[in-house]
Design goal:
Layout (H helix, E strand, L loop, with lengths): L1 E8 L5 H7 L3 H12 L4 E6 L3 E8 L2 H16 L3 H5 L3 E4 H12 L11 H15 L5 H20 L9 H13 L6 E5 L3 H12 L4 E6 L2 H11 L2 E4 L3 H7 L2 E4 L10 H9 L6 E5 L16 E5 L4 H9 L2 H52 L5 H28 L4 H9 L9
Parallel strand pairs: 5-6, 5-8, 6-7, 8-9, 9-10
Antiparallel strand pairs: 1-3, 1-4, 2-3
Helix pairs in contact: 1-3, 5-7, 5-14, 6-7, 7-14, 8-9, 11-12, 14-15, 15-16
Bound molecules: NADP nicotinamide-adenine-dinucleotide phosphate.
Length: 419
């Protein structure tokens, strides 16, 4: 059984490419169905940092090709140009990458909490689509276990920043103290909730929360404060806010140049800071060219990510140790899984011989009582088991599969047929 990972992330692809590959929760089922045409067992992990396909099957080359094609179709960048954005990892390296992702090591904001839930959701969605198997389930569960240990045993997530809190920091860097300022938050999901919470703590005096569904905005402000508004109130709210943070899970742009130009006209020259942390972006990038508008996106937060990473170096070392510890457990399980057909073939061959020879011997002996026959059965089985015990342990522990190959050759085992 082979595992193949094909992905793009914030290290390999620019925002404009990543946003095309991003798949929100509402579209995940549909995307899994389309992946299923070429990959029968696979999980899609799509977050604001990455879109990754984890596929399992017997032919890793065809998994790789199908995964590449799927991502290139999403990004619309075919051929060599598209390939440059994509990374491919196989088997243990693919699993190690997922363990690191779940541990928060591969995130822009190292140690972020959200990723652990997202890994679980990705597995659940693939399971619902009937696209998981023993290998994918085991590897994803292992990654979640590693991620939980990381949070429990290290301080990596203690006071961890989130992209939402970094967005508020950036607003503060640009405008100075936020107390007395007004803010508009577009999007009432987890990202929006975190923005409002941090903005409240920084003393923002008025926070309007706009969402497609009014009830969701109302529920959010009830928990963390603010004023719920509808998307139809955006013109008035844009005219009023000093800071706009956009974090709606919409697949299309929600703010264009026309809207922002109109808002700017009614502001009498007062500057506006727009921070777009959505992926795909909620704001048309052309808005950056409008005078008195400062538009930032998720990739403009890079300096703060770097500082955050540097401040967590000692924890990163501890997290890496946990990841390696969990990887050793996984590797032992995987090895046992790989040699299972060979072990079955060996045991079946030995059992056939034992049974045949015992039958021949019994025919030559005087009729035995049931008790005597049982004793002979038990004794011959015990001899076979004891002879095979050490070689089986050796092939299970064997790192490069040399013992397994030798065993298969010497005993002429056709393990493939027993899979
Ligand atoms: N979660 C994080 O920590 C995080 C961090 C960084 C960036 N982001 C980015 O922030 C965005 C939001 O993520 P999220 O995790 O908060 O959850 P989400 O559930 O995807 O988004 C929640 C908000 O987006 C709105 N929305 C979804 N689809 C929409 C559409 N087609 N048109 C208009 N509004 C729509 C929802 O409206 P309804 O209430 O009507 O459903 C809701 O207000 C994403 O682009 C994500 O990549 C998230």
């Amino acid at each position: 059984m082979q595992l193949c990972l094909v992905g793009i992330n914030y290290n390999t692809a620019p925002l404009a490419v990543r946003e095309k590959a991003s798949i929100n929760v509402e579209k995940l089922g549909e995307s899994l169905s389309s992946l299923h045409r070429d990959i029968h067992r696979g999980v899609i992990l799509s977050t604001c940092n990455r879109t990754e396909i984890y596929a399992s099957g017997s032919d890793s080359t065809s998994l790789e090709k199908a995964g590449m094609l799927f991502l290139q179709t999403l990004t619309g960048s075919k051929g060599a140009a598209g390939e440059n954005f994509i990374y491919i990892l196989k088997n243990v390296e693919a699993a190690r990458h997922l363990f690191r992702v779940a541990g928060g090591l591969e995130s822009m904001v190292v140690g972020e909490y959200e990723i652990l839930g997202q890994v679980g959701q990705a597995l659940e969605a693939a399971g619902k689509a009937g696209m998981t198997d023993l290998l994918l389930n085991h590897i994803f569960q292992g990654a979640i276990q590693a991620g939980r240990r990381v949070r429990a045993e290290t301080g990596i997530s203690r006071n961890a920043l989130s992209i939402s809190s970094i967005a508020v920091n950036l607003a503060e860097e640009t405008l100075g103290k936020l107390s007395g300022r007004t803010m508009l938050v577009i999007g009432a999901g987890e990202a929006g909730r975190l923005v409002v919470k941090v903005a409240r703590d920084r003393g923002v005096s008025r926070i309007a929360v706009a969402s497609r569904t009014h009830e969701r905005a109302a529920a959010l402000v009830q928990r963390v404060g603010g004023i719920p508004v509808g998307l139809d109130s955006l013109p008035q709210e844009l005219a009023r806010a000093d800071i706009v943070v956009t974090c709606a899970g919409a697949p299309h742009r929600m703010l264009g140049t026309n809207q922002i130009e109109k808002a700017v006209q009614s502001r009498g020259g007062r500057p506006i800071v727009i921070i777009d942390i959505a992926l795909p972006r909620n704001v048309d990038p052309e808005v950056a060219n409008i005078p008195d508008v400062s538009l930032r996106n998720i990739d403009d937060l890079t300096n703060i990510y770097e500082t955050n990473r540097e401040g967590r170096l000692s924890e990163i070392v501890m997290v890496e140790e946990i990841v390696e510890d969990e990887m050793r457990r996984l590797a032992a399980w995987w090895k046992a899984l790989e040699v299972r057909p060979l072990v079955s073939a060996l045991m079946a061959k030995a059992e056939e011989i034992r049974d045949r020879q015992l039958g021949k011997t019994l025919k030559k002996l005087r009729p035995l009582s049931a008790e005597e026959q049982e004793s002979l059965e038990a004794m011959t089985k015990s001899i076979v088991n004891q002879i095979l015990k050490d070689p089986i342990q050796q092939i299970k522990a064997d790192g490069d599969g040399e013992h397994a190959r030798l065993m298969s050759e010497l005993f002429q085992l056709d393990a493939e047929k027993r899979k």
